[in-house]
Amino acid sequence: MTDPASTVSDRDELLDVAVEAARTAGAILLERYAHAHEVTTKSSPTDLVSEADVEAERAIRDVLARRRPGDALVGEEGSDVAGSSGLRWVVDPLDGTVNYLFAIPQWCVSVACEGEVGVILDPVRDELFTVRDGEEAQLGGEPLRPSTRADVATAMVATGFGYERDVRAAQAEVVARLLPEVRDIRRMGSAALDLAWTAAGRFDAYYEYGLNAWDWAAGSMLCAAVGLEVRHLAPLPGTGAGLLVAPPALIDRLAALVSG
């Protein structure tokens, strides 16, 4: 018997829910974007959370509670809801908080139902990246086209850094090893949006250590759907586990460079 959670009609519904949740949170974030100065810290003085983060996650939680009351939910700002359906939502209501607070327009909302659908919304540009399991990933209804680059020396690679001093020191060693071997490196500030942009071919590849599931849940689905290889990396000394996404022709060479 086919699992009801994996039927096309159910994935249509799940994607509709994910889009509603992302757009609801995005509207809140845009409304508060110019005035998002009320902040607290989390793991370190540079790890910030704003009232906008919390309000956006609450809005996502309300959408899911109304439309998918039996599903589990985990979110960056503390949502942890058990479910009975076998499905779990992983959400980041505001990925790129520091950018958001400094009015740097590279931040997004990430909503994924694990193994089923993923949505990344860039509210500033009104770019909506979507994917359903087994189907092509899209941007605004048009298919995404990733990089097919095969030459590491000309690859544009995106990455990100953690918040804690020791983690950053370890990440700096990786960058120092990688930078001479590629075209250039970009550090934009939102892991989820980096992954969406990699799926769209704006970057050739992306890697980062110390990510949480909500950072990559939707973005990794986008990348896998367009034919990029998604590889989880073992932690390095001083870092959490990592993620590497690249065209098949680049993945092994980049993995050797970023894994030490």
Distinctive features:
alpha+beta, D-Maltodextrin-Binding Protein, domain 2, eight-stranded mixed β-sheet, 2 domains, 7 helices, 260 residues, Fructose-1,6-Bisphosphatase, Chain A, domain 1, five-stranded mixed β-sheet
Fold and architecture overview:
- The protein is α+β, with helices and mostly antiparallel strands.
- The chain folds into 2 domains: 4-143, Fructose-1,6-Bisphosphatase, subunit A, domain 1 (Fructose-1,6-Bisphosphatase, Chain A, domain 1), CATH 3.30.540; 152-259, D-Maltodextrin-Binding Protein, domain 2 (3-Layer(aba) Sandwich), CATH 3.40.190.80.
- Helix content is 37%, strand content 25%.
- It is built from 7 helices and 15 strands.
- The protein has helices spanning 8-32, 51-67, 97-101, 165-178, 191-199, 213-225, 248-259, and strands at 39-41, 48-50, 72-75, 80-81, 88-95, 108-113, 117-122, 127-132, 138-139, 142-143, 156-159, 184-187, 205-209, 229-233, 242-246.
- The protein has an 8-stranded mixed sheet, with helices on both faces.
- Helix 5 (191-199) runs parallel beside helix 6 (213-225).
- The protein is globular.
- The N and C termini lie far apart (46 Å).
- 45% of the residues are buried.
- The model has no long low-confidence stretch (mean pLDDT 91).
Short description:
By secondary structure, this protein is of the alpha+beta class. Helices cover 37% and strands 25% of the residues.
Low-confidence stretches: none
Report the portion of residues in β strands. 25-35%
**CATH class assignment of the largest domain:** Alpha Beta
- What is the makeup of the main sheet? 8 strands, mixed
- Anisotropy-based shape: globular
Q: Strand arrangement, largest sheet?
A: 4-3-5-6-7-8-9-10
CATH architecture of the largest domain: 2-Layer Sandwich
